[in-house]
Amino acid sequence: MKSRTGIVSHYHIAANNAADVQQWKPALDEHKRIFGRAPHLATGDRGFWSAENETYAEELGVKRTVLPGRGRLSAKRAARQKERWFRRGQAWRAGIEPRISTLKHCFEMARAFYKGATGFERYVGCCVIAQNLVAMIRALKVKSKDQCRSG
Questions:
Q1: Using CA of residue 97, residue 98, residue 99, residue 105, what is the dihedral sign?
Q2: What is the pLDDT of residues 3-49, one digit of tens each?
Q3: What is the DSSP annotation of 77-133?
Q4: Lower CB count within 10 Å: N or C terminus of the chain?
């Protein structure tokens, strides 16, 4: 999960390469546990879509659930996916992809140097921490530029 500032607030290494559709509920539950409330916007790609996942998000208190449907869409579904808030939510999700790319390339997460399951978990955790430190520095730089302009 990623916050507005680009900080990865939670990550999970799925056992047995679990499908995205199975990871939606645990991710929302973990967000609620960490922040004490459901997110205003929850988004994912087509792999996360299911009617059950959308219903679960709504029951949890998510105001905007952006999960593009798969296959041929009903007229109602197509209209929903063309709404402005839905398209903006997809753009927000698209912003997650550069974070993953940064983890893979800048922090060399494409290949783990520690071996075994425990080593792999340790390696991923270290990459996420390093990426978060960079995101915090970037946020501080933006904040200091804004202060210089207003002062």
A1: positive
A2: 566 788 888 888 777 888 999 999 999 999 999 999 999 988 888 99
A3: HHHHHHSHHHHHHHHHHHTHHHHHHHHHHTT-TTS-SS-HHHHHHHHHHHHHHHHHH
A4: C
DSSP β-bridge partners for residue 41: 64
Amino acid at 126: C
Burial pattern 42-59, b for ≥16 Cβ within 10 A else e, equals bbbeeebbbeebbebbee
Spell out the alpha helix ranges (H) of 15-63.
20-35, 51-60
Dihedral Cα 91, 93, 95, 96, nearest 10 deg: -170
Q: What Cα–Cα distance (Å) separates residue 11 from each residue in 70, 72, 100, 108, 141?
A: 25, 32, 11, 17, 25
DSSP secondary-structure letter at 62?
A: -
Phi, psi (deg, nearest 5) at residue 66: -115, 95
Compute the distance between CA of residue 6 and CA of residue 8 in angstroms, rounded to an integer: 6
Residue-wise pLDDT for 86-137, tens only, equals 999 888 877 777 777 777 777 777 777 788 888 888 888 888 888 888 888 8
Look at residue 145 and tell me whether its pLDDT is greater than 80.
Answer: no
